[in-house]
Amino acid sequence: MKRSDIDGGKPFDWGKTSSDYAKFRDIYPKEFYEKAINRGLCVKGQSVLDLGTGTGVLPRNMYCYGADWTGVDASENQIAQAKLLSDGMDISYYAMPAEEIVFPENSFDVITACQCFWYFDHEVLMPKLHRMLKNEGRILLLYMAWLPFEDKIAMESEKTVLKYNPNWSGANEIVRPIYFPPCYNEKFQLMHSEEYPLDVRFTRESWNGRIKACRGIEASLTEDEVSAWEKEHIKMLEEIAPEEFSVRHYGALAELKKLS
Asked: What is the spatial distance between Cα 1 and Cα 4, in angstroms, rounded to a whole number?
């Protein structure tokens, strides 16, 4: 994928991260999922479509709440990992871009998008989501990010990413509502928006893996660049971070209701 408004137009491919993504990015705390459950979303009796599902983190972790899940992702490598990690779960996965989904009208009670909504072509996607949702169905947008201005380890890690990928646009995150394009106001109503603090536990190994599997490193750099970055990042962690630690994050959600 390549877009001028992301990382200065530097190409990236989530499929390059799939192995590490599967190992190191299943990190959302229970509270993150319970925010959706407390809204009455993604629960038993509902059919849910997860856009940009990646390795199936959302369907796998919310499977226990009883909804019927389907996941789609543009990367075949990500979907392959999702299927492996979902062994024994009745979750359907499809390798296809969100803009090309072709499910029938009124197929889903909820459509979710976690950490991915800004990647889509919304002028194409929005009418499809409206058509596929049942009457008064919901779009649920979910997001979690570390806060570098509130956490020294996060800030120092960002500095290493920017050294190797200066145009990476994932840096300098602050607490803010989830953005959705104005075209959604034509056919959807914002029902709820929320941001809240989270402290997420890591070891040096798991935090290194988390950063490595971000868009700014493994998804976009060469193998040699990734290797050089990793040596520097591990050395930095050994100097400033204990073996186990928490990193300050925030979570966010936005719930949109389909209008008739």
From this structure: 10
